[in-house]
Write a structure and sequence with these properties.
heterodimer; A: alpha/beta; 2 domains; 11 helices; B: alpha+beta; four-stranded antiparallel β-sheet; 14 helices; 20% strand
């Protein structure tokens, strides 16, 4: 058997200040970008046609170019994130959905500009077939509302928060409250960092990106639990070790698994980013960032927070015990106390 | 490990695999030999797996809410209510009308004594929403009291009616189980249009009918002498009108009545009885907004395949209804649906919250009606303006690119597992393939529609499937390094990793259940595939993979090496 890693002893927790610092920096950068863009009259996030509506332009062609070429022509003229949808019962017609734009910008005019690269438009009163020189005609322009209105958006956020509470409660039941809280904080961190990237680079947020964010949540929690699980096991095997050492050992012991699994998922998502095409780009990028930070946060966010919290609780317990002037063993929490706090969390 | 145990495991796995495989590629009818050729499998696969709008396209329907009808009805209702309010307060009204022609909406009352106009105004506005000055502006002149709807209110009310219609259509689509539609307003705000895109449905005409079903339900008092005389019906509308002295007073209305077919009354049961007319009191006792539930049930006493609809009322409606029926025992009430009396019932005793719509319904029409009643009445009728079949919203080229990229990713995963874990890698790849087959089978069994968010769920599932195998293998290696025998290393590896796998899976399943139960649209699609995938994974990555190891170890008495 060949092995990527052997007997590693990296002091992960020793670098916690660096980790937390980098994460804070990234989150602040994202937040700063959102606030700055909002304040300077821009948009904090580039919400797509799903969220804020837009314009549907119906164009009829004599010789219909492929969806790809139409999208490329639109991109060329600065109409980004357009949805190009074919019409089955009228193959020479195409629906072009463009997101709502700022004031003074006319979606229709820009679509027309892009379509002019395929030839000239038929005059308004003339039928496309009757005009020998024309190659297309815009037969309809309609505003469309958002698919996901504010109500749906709020509901989606509420549901996701409820799901996170569910995660918190389950982890608390299987481990301890501090573990659950640390895992959920790590997930929040991942989502915020990813959203930060979306604000900074103004990638379009569509409903599919929301699905990618949910995937990220699942991925991040999965990764965190693997590490926590090992910590739980080691605490029972090595009762004398400090939580600090146990956590470092757990991360090191699961490191080869982390690298293999996450490396494979990383490669698959990278393939999606590279070869998945423009329409899927925002979706793939959200997954991509999610994989990177989901992995990072289990080691760099969830574990340090959990250790810090547990140590504080221990210190508080010790103080309380001292106040009652009972003899206390130094170092780790005594097994009796640990088990009393860990009722129902066997295995 | 015992041979018997291994045999039992093998049989279970073989059965599950065969059933799963058949669900995915087998036709839903009696299979022919040609269903199992390459093109046959491709065709069945396409019909078995439902794809969403983004991957497959579907119907594109533009409809318009007839808000002018909504405003007209609102004006008429206010007119009737104003008349009744004035009369209740003891004032005589000699005439008036609800004027909805020429683009305005006015309620006009002509008091018998013009000098009492102000008192009447006060009495009316106390009881009727005509007092809302943000909607109605009052002017009184020359013996006429006129409330005119303001232009602003007309717009707001019409917009609200459109939003309401949108919500009701949304709940009907959900009730019909059409997965992942998109619903949005269309055109300028004043055009009151709604654009619905939905992935291919079985019976588009039926869906269109259900969506535009108005389902205005009213329970009314049928005017006539008290029982035992039968309810008073008239052969023509004119006859009914004549019974009221030529013109209908504002608190009376004439409705057509198509009675339920009595089997003894006609040889041919499909022939409805000629239409009759009845006079009813207006306003209605209660309307459909007080409905709590409606269900289709086989009709009692009718033909075996006749259906009727049972409904129950909310608390507030039941109070009103109970009070009214208590005061009108031995009289008749009618169930009015979309302006037509469907059934007339004799009030034997006080009724609170239960009622029936009888009539000749087939099972489907009864169920459709019950569905629309449950989702609420549309504020106004709906007309279809445009109907198209559209292609996938992601674009065929993007889908191709996405599929290609996913295959590249999958190939990388398989390759790595085989190179890194060698013999055991085969084990993992088998589990992975089985996972994907069973996941598709699960989607088909639950009738889920596959969309891009669903595929995101699949990616996460596959990631976690790979993770389960890696966790187990890494653990076995660890145990081997610590000097355990192969058999005990495999045992320990599975036992230890199993705890982790259970925790990661249960956590994700719990959170997905939240998303599934309370989520909508893409969030739900994501959750469905994820839950199915993870449940399947517990089987494929733990049970199946374990079985393969048991089989490998059982071939020799003493196993010296394990390819991992």
């Amino acid at each position: 058997m060949f092995q990527i890693l052997h007997d590693i002893t990296i002091d992960w927790l020793g670098n916690r200040r660096w980790f937390i610092g980098v994460s804070l920096l990234l989150m602040l950068a994202g937040l700063g970008s959102a606030i700055f863009r909002q304040a300077t009259g821009g948009q904090a996030f580039n919400l797509g046609v799903d969220f804020k509506g837009g314009t549907v332009v119906t164009a009829k062609f004599k010789q219909r170019p492929s969806d790809e070429t139409i999208r490329a022509a639109l991109d060329e003229k600065g109409v980004r994130d357009a949805v190009v949808q074919s019409v089955r019962d009228s193959p020479d017609t195409v629906l072009i959905k463009v997101p709502l734009e700022g004031e003074g910008q006319d979606g229709r005019a820009r679509v027309r500009e892009a379509l002019n690269t395929f030839g000239s438009e038929a005059a308004p009163a003339v039928d496309l077939a009757a005009d020998a020189n024309a190659s297309y005609k815009i037969v309809g322009t309609e505003a469309v509302g958002a698919i996901a209105g504010a109500q749906l958006r709020n509901k989606a956020i509420a549901v996701t928060l409820a799901a996170l509470v569910g995660i918190l409660v389950y982890i608390a039941f299987r481990f301890e409250w501090t573990y659950g809280a640390a895992a959920v904080i790590a997930v929040f961190h991942d989502v915020l960092v990813t959203l930060g990237f979306f604000s900074m680079f103004q990638w379009e947020i569509s409903l599919t990106v929301i699905a990618a964010l949910l995937t990220l949540v699942g991925f991040s929690v999965n990764d965190t639990i693997v590490v926590f699980d090992r910590i739980r096991e080691n605490r029972k095997l090595h009762r004398r070790d400090s939580l600090y050492k146990i956590t470092n050992d757990a991360i090191n012991q699961t490191l080869s698994r982390t690298i293999i699994t996450n490396g494979l998922v990383f490669l698959s998502v990278l393939a999606l980013v590279l070869f998945g095409g423009d329409v899927l780009r925002a979706f793939s990028l959200a997954l991509f960032i999610g994989v990177v930070f989901g992995t990072y946060s289990s080691v760099a966010i969830a574990s340090p927070i959990m250790v810090w919290w547990e140590q504080r609780l221990e210190a508080a317990n010790r103080r309380a015990a001292l106040a009652m002037s009972q003899p206390v063993k130094g170092g780790v929490r005594t097994p009796a106390k640990a088990s009393s706090r860990r009722a129902g969390a066997k295995l | 490990m015992k041979k018997k145990n291994l045999l039992q495991r093998t049989i279970i796995i073989a059965l599950v695999t065969i059933i799963g495989l058949y669900l995915v590629i087998g036709p839903r009818r009696r299979p022919h030999l040609k269903d199992f050729t390459w093109s046959g499998i491709k065709a069945t696969l396409a019909s078995n797996i439902k794809l969403g709008l983004d991957l497959q396209g579907g119907s594109h329907l533009v409809m318009r809410v007839k808000t002018e009808e909504f405003l007209r009805r609102l004006t008429e209702e206010n007119y009737v209510a104003a008349q009744n309010a004035a009369k209740d307060a003891g004032f005589e009204i000699k005439g008036g009308q609800a004027d909805t022609n020429s683009g305005k909406h006015q309620v006009v009352l002509e008091p018998a004594d013009a000098s009492k106009a102000n008192d009447i105004k006060q009495a009316v506005e106390k009881k009727v929403e005509l007092g809302d000055t943000s909607v109605w502006s009052y002017s009184g002149s020359g013996g006429q009291m006129v409330w005119t709807m303001t232009g602003n209110a007309e717009r707001t009310l019409a917009d609200n009616a459109t939003t309401q219609a949108l919500n009701i259509i949304d709940s009907r689509i959900n009730a019909l189980g059409i997965a992942e539609p998109t619903l949005q307003t269309h055109g300028s705000q004043s055009s009151h249009q709604i654009l619905l895109q939905m992935p291919g449905v079985q019976d588009p005409e039926r869906v269109k009918e259900i969506l535009k079903g108005e389902s205005r339900l009213e329970l009314v008092h049928v005017v006539g002498p008290p029982s035992p005389a039968p309810a008073t019906t008239y052969q023509t509308e004119a006859e009914a009108l004549a019974s009221l002295g030529g013109t209908a007073p504002p608190n009376r209305k004439i409705f057509p009545y198509s009675e339920r077919m009595e089997l003894s009354a006609a040889k041919d049961p499909s022939q409805p009885k000629p239409k009759q007319w009845v006079v009813v009191e207006t306003p209605a006792i209660i309307d459909g907004s007080e409905l709590r539930n409606a269900t289709a049930v086989p009709s009692q006493g009718g033909r075996a395949d006749d259906f009727e609809i049972n409904f129950s009322l909310k608390k507030s409606g039941a109070d009103k209804f109970g009070q009214w029926t208590g005061a009108h025992i031995n009289e008749y009430m009618g169930v009015v649906l979309n302006g037509e009396v469907k059934s007339i019932a004799y009030i034997k005793s006080q009724i609170y919250d239960q009622g029936q719509i009888t009539g000749r319904f087939t099972q489907q029409s009864a169920e459709d009606l019950a569905l629309t009643l449950r989702s609420g009445a549309l504020p106004a009728p709906i007309e279809y303006l445009e109907e198209r079949t559209v292609g996938p919203s992601l674009g065929a080229d993007s889908i191709r690119a996405g599929v290609r990229a996913s295959l590249v990713g999958l190939a990388l995963v398989v390759l790595f597992m085989l190179v890194y874990y060698r013999g055991s890698g085969v084990n993992a790849v088998v589990a992975l393939i089985l996972n994907m087959i069973l996941m598709l089978a699960g989607l088909i069994v639950f009738g889920a529609t596959l969309t891009l968010p669903g595929i995101a769920g699949m990616i996460l599932t596959i990631g976690m499937a790979v993770d389960s195998n890696v966790l187990v293998f890494e653990r076995i290696r660890e145990e081997l390094r610590s000097g355990k025998t192969i058999a005990s290393a495999v045992d320990q590896g599975f036992a230890r990793a199993f705890i982790t796998i259970i925790d990661t899976h249960v956590t994700t399943i719990i959170s997905s259940l939240f998303l599934f139960v309370f989520g909508t649209g893409p969030i739900r699609g994501f959750a469905v595939t994820l839950v199915i995938g993870l449940l399947v994974n517990l089987f494929s990555a733990v049970y199946v993979s374990r079985t393969i190891f048991i089989w490998l170890l059982s071939r020799k008495e003493r196993v010296e090496s394990l390819s991992i």
